[in-house]
Write a structure and sequence with these properties.
Elements: H1 2-37, E1 41-46, H2 51-67, E2 72-77, H3 93-101, E3 105-109, H4 110-115, E4 128-130, H5 133-142, E5 146-149
Parallel strand pairs: 1-2, 1-5, 2-3, 3-4
């Protein structure tokens, strides 16, 4: 009798575990379809000169593009984050070039450039310019873009 109850319990537990795994797989598949189904619009604010943050950003952008192919993304660099786009300071220019080719936009804040005494010819050619980085972010949010602040 004890063996029968034990076997019943083990069989029930095993089937519940299988059902949960199947459910999780279905949920992950549904999530992936939802991510890729609608194009996302994401504006990133970069204010950090930390190169670890810059490398992390490159990974995040690539990860997003790998599952949500039609996403629109813009990275707004101001303050110390301007270093991402400055010739001689950036360590990810090749990755920025590849991401730009995939449709990601990188822009430098002209107010931050003026404050930091960075001329336009010192910004990598893959980047564009906006007058005011914060206003660019606000404008994107008003247009329905999602906002991500970068950094650790």
């Amino acid at each position: 009798m004890k063996k029968t109850i034990l076997l019943f319990f083990l069989a029930t537990a095993a089937s519940l575990g299988f059902a949960q795994n199947s459910s999780a797989t279905l949920q992950n598949d549904d999530l992936e379809k939802q991510l890729d189904a609608k194009p996302h619009k994401i504006v990133f604010q970069l204010t950090s000169a930390d190169t670890n943050v810059h490398k992390s950003l490159m990974r995040q952008l690539n990860n997003i593009l790998s599952v949500a192919h039609d996403s629109k993304m813009e990275v707004v660099c101001h303050g110390p984050g301007l270093d991402l786009l400055v010739i001689g300071k950036t360590i990810v220019q090749e990755k920025i070039a590849a991401l730009k080719a995939a449709g990601v936009i990188f822009v430098a804040c002209e107010f931050a450039m003026k404050e930091r005494k960075v001329e336009k010819d010192k910004i990598i050619p893959e980047a564009g310019f906006v007058k005011a980085g914060v206003l660019e972010i606000v404008s994107k949010q008003e247009e329905g873009w999602s906002y991500i602040k970068l950094g650790f």
